[in-house]
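Data's thin. Show one?
=====
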Amino acid sequence: MAATSVLDQIVDTARYPLADPNGEAWRAAVAHARAELADGGCTVLREFIRPELIETLRAEGEAMAPDAHYQVERVNAYNIPLDTELPEDHPGRIVLERGNAFVPRDRIPVGALIHRLYTSELFQRFVADCFGLAELHEFADPLAGLCLNVVAPGMSHPWHFDTNEFTVSMLTQPAETGGVFEYCPDIRSPHAEQFDDVRDVLTGSGARLVRRLELRPGDLQLFQGRFSLHRVSPVEGGTSRHSAIFAYTDRPGVIGTVERTRQLFGRVLPDHLAAAADAVRGDRLLD
């Protein structure tokens, strides 16, 4: 199927005419996204998916959810082993409870809306342009490249940093109550961990650093989660929160660590073991 046909079928091209990369509407959407990313590391393209597909988006996510790996774990914001030797006041010593679950890429049907969008070259070109990059690559990780994040009632996705620098996501099913995306724009940089600020947020004294974002199904969120601490607040009510995570990177070959992959998916593949000794990273941040 032609690349433009995929987008025409899925994206509200009346609002986002992505078939014309040189058009005025494309440039306007990109300029707006870049301005918001520069200001706070996050932008939301409202009603990106065609309105008549919102129920399909939700239903497909609901059908995938049983394949999520569920395991409540004690973690820290850096997703490194809890017995890692760290100074007494290091924020990595603060233990959090992670209760969200992930449906991995190898359990997502290739015909699903989120898979078709994730692999669309025109969509990738648009996302790259929004981030001000010449190109983007699909996350090489066979499990984490595309996944569905499931946060059940009573659970949350605690404070953390992303492994990849550029994250694209889309809410597919909201929680009845709670499940709010919260983030701390650029709380660290490639050259400075800013442990004091991170510790303030984790201990509840850093409210000044936190922004909150209300998302609706079909909204496209572009986020620089490598440098912005973020979480999904506890979900309440009787409905799980579902969101698709489209992971891209500005360089090829990025694969998640063995430790983090085991945490998120309950298993590792030969690709993760092979990459462990020669991980591709663009910085020396803790994780």
About this structure: Residues 3-276 form a domain with the Jelly Rolls fold (CATH 2.60.120.620).
